[in-house]
Design brief:
transmembrane helix; plasmid; BCAA_transport_permease; amino-acid transport
Amino acid sequence: MDLFLQQTLAGISNGAIYAALALALVMIFNTTGHINFAQGEMALLGTYIAWTLLAAGLPYWLAFVITVVAAFIFGVSVDRLVIRRFRNAPHLALVVVFVGLLLAFNATAGWIWGFTIKDFPSPVSGLSTGTILIGAHSLFAILVSLGLLSLLFLFFRFTLLGLAMRAAARNPASARLLGIRVERMLALGWGLASILGTVAGLLIAPVTYLEPGMMMSVLLYAFASAMLGGMNSPGGAVLGGLLFGVLENLAGTYLIGNDLKLSFALAVVVTVLVIRPNGLFGRPDVKRV
């Protein structure tokens, strides 16, 4: 029973991280209609920036704030300099753009920081939770992810700027008629998605390692989480991330082993597409013709 509880709590910890990255994928999907395959590599660059600041001697939380600001600027810049030029391009063209960004960002990380594995510190590495069921960093990851996601929910639900962003993503033409600067709102969405991805990278790096391929598997897990919850449901992405984290951890412990976790994620994606393409909490995409 202790092993089951331990693996369940560890799954919730991983799921909270997947939920942050899944929510970033959902935000971009709702604004562009496409999966941002470069979301993980954008998070990777942000994590490397944080590592550089920490290696220079900055305190963790100061490095965290600077990294979050840099991630926001980076996300806005990607939208302004690249994505905006392909806003009305065919679907396949945007897929190629996202794959190209993935390869470019990954190569840039390797070119600047090298391909050697680097240790990434945790701000709670010296703390103890007083229990063997969950480590300090796992508990920290759960609290940070859920706190960040709660703030994001309040932002979109109760602020004028959040409502304007939702309107711009849902119906750009109507939003323009209401005086909303749609392009500015979409760029802001890219900035927030970049922050979410970077926070996920900062939380996962102390658990695994920091190197250019770090986010590849995490992006797949986040994609499976978003598919499970629903690509058009931000709340579903969060619940899907938590659910997938638990299922993945329990399956790896009792059924398939840790070596087949990537295969389990792919199996979840295929199963969802076959049985319920909109996810557990997504809504059908109905269009008038």
